[in-house]
Amino acid sequence: MRIGGRLQGAIEVLSEVEERRRPISSALKDWGTAHRFAGSGDRAAIGNIVYDALRLKLSHGWLMDDESPAALAHAVLFRQWGFTPESLAERLEGDKFAPEPLPETALAAFASRKLVDAPDHVRADLPEWILPAFKANFGEHWLAEAEALNLRPPLDLRVNTLKADREKVKKALARAGAELAATAPQGLRIPPGSGADRLPNVTAELAFQKGWFEVQDEGSQIVARLVDAHAGQQVLDYCAGGGGKTLALSADMDNAGQVHAYDADRTRLAPIIERLRRAGTRNVQVHDDAAALEGLTFDRVLIDAPCTGTGTWRRRPDIKWRLSEKNLEERTVQQDEVLAAASRFVKPGGLLVYVTCSLLPDENQARIAGFLDSHADFTAVDIEGLWQERFPSSEKRPHFTDGRFATLTPAVTGTDGFFCAVLRKKG
User: Fold this and answer.
1) Which helix (H) or strand (E) is 66 found in, with range?
2) What pLDDT score was predicted for residue 427?
3) 216 with 304: CB under 8 angstroms?
4) What is the DSSP string of 356-404?
5) pTM of the predicted model, to two decimals?
6) Beta strands in 32-110 (DSSP E)
7) Which residues contact 48 (CB under 8 A, 6 or more apart)?
8) How far lies 333's CA from each of 90, 305, 329, 372, 417, in Å?
9) How far is Cα of residue 378 from the mean position of the Cα atoms in its chain?
10) What DSSP string describes 145-201?
11) Which of 239, 307, 357, 420 is catalytic?
């Protein structure tokens, strides 16, 4: 397919996402099924346009004075892919698969408008109601933090030390461009590329099938390390989901001790069984019924809490525009419930580690402050000291709040957005 067909395909997918509120991945999959003639490179290019358009949806629309899927898709090519309106018009001329030309009003707006003149939430590509939370959380750095959330993410991998080491996996993935990650000691990273570049399908590699590595954002790897799990301990991964952090904990413990992976949602938990088998773990028990945990206590309890996912917007930009204040209120209620429920399983002297992939203070600092106010038997651990202990050679440091809370972001740690607090039970 030429650029015209790819552009038209992206417009069709964007229309499907916007009009039917469908996840990007589902809309792209269905488009590919309906257009079998499109090759893998075509599908990747269309996906890149769609994701780029939705990451910068507000600023694209403001600059074009037009928020239609066609305007957003064209803005991607103008702002991010290196085309000028004139050079794109030349490429589209005579292409029967190309979309209709944009209205002259949109092209005139793009030629005259400057983003510096836009409202703050437009410059940041944030829902307007979230802007105050970003300013409160990041102070004078709010815009840089928001802009970093609008960039393409890399593909991060965690080497499974139960089966391989980092150099072995790096060599196996040399053709994919794997590099050592900045902070996570078992992390590898494949840069995102630009334009129509596509990331390699690493899950098709033999090394993946052998269980040598898992796909896992470096931030997720880092917060798993902050659990500070050691061989021989008893560990509970509460809200385990698909098991990414469970696998990391098992490897940190060198398959010694026990990790209990619990999630009430069987659908979210379903992938964990195959992942555990492939990784060669022997010390993990999986539960979908909290009754199986009654009477047990643990050295470490990890809460990967349900949240709004604001820290994952690089990878899931469509959820940014569907998030509402009601969603946030529902999540904070769930977070308080999960904190109260999971804290019962911590041994005296043990650690309770609270993690979200959110960058909103209401889901993070506020939840922990409220928990500590009502649970005098817990105290916050010096997380800056723990960071130095777990990542002594890292040059990248998260935002630390009062020495008690750590916030990882694309801007400062080069990861997805994560919040982490470590609490110790007195005893």
Assistant:
1) none
2) 85
3) no
4) ES---GGGTHHHHHHHHHH-TTEEE--HHHHHHHH-TT-S---EEETTT
5) 0.96
6) none
7) 152, 195, 196, 197, 198
8) 54, 11, 7, 16, 21
9) 29
10) HHHHTTSPP-EEEEE-TTT--HHHHHHHTGGGT-EE-SS-TTEEEE---STT-----
11) 357
Distance CA 249, CA 230 (A): 9
Tally of CA atoms within 13 A in the half-sphere of 291 that contains its CB: 1
Burial status of residue 60 (CB atoms within 10 A of its CB: 0-12, 13-18, 19 or more): buried
pLDDT (tens digit per residue) in 116-125: 999 999 999 9
Return the residue matching tokens 């007195």: 426
Q: Residue type for 210, please? A: K
Q: Shortest CA distance to 361 belongs to which of 321, 326, 323, 407? A: 407
Q: Residues 152-162, buried b or exposed e (16+ Cβ, 10 A)?
A: bbbbbbbbbbb
- Our answer to whether residue 307 is catalytic in this structure is no
Q: Pick the closest to residue 218 from 272, 155, 167 (CA basis).
A: 155
In whole angstroms, what is the distance from residue 281 CA to residue 255 CA?
6
Task: Measure the N-to-C terminal CA separation of the chain; round to a whole number of Å.
Answer: 66
Structure tokens at 152: 């393409």
Total residues found in the chain within this entry: 427
Asked if 153 contacts 174 with a C-beta cutoff of 8 angstroms, the reply is no
Specify the pLDDT at position 51. Answer: 97
pLDDT per 10-residue tile (average), the chain, 427 residues: 95 95 94 92 96 98 98 98 96 94 97 98 98 97 98 98 97 96 97 93 97 98 98 98 97 98 95 96 96 97 98 97 97 98 98 98 98 97 96 95 95 98 96
**Residue-level pLDDT at 403:** 86
Contact indicator for 271, 243 with CB cutoff of 8 Å: yes
Query: If we measure between CA atoms, which residue out of 345, 406, 420, 350 comes closest to residue 379?
Result: 350
The alpha-carbon radius of gyration of the chain (Å, integer) is: 23
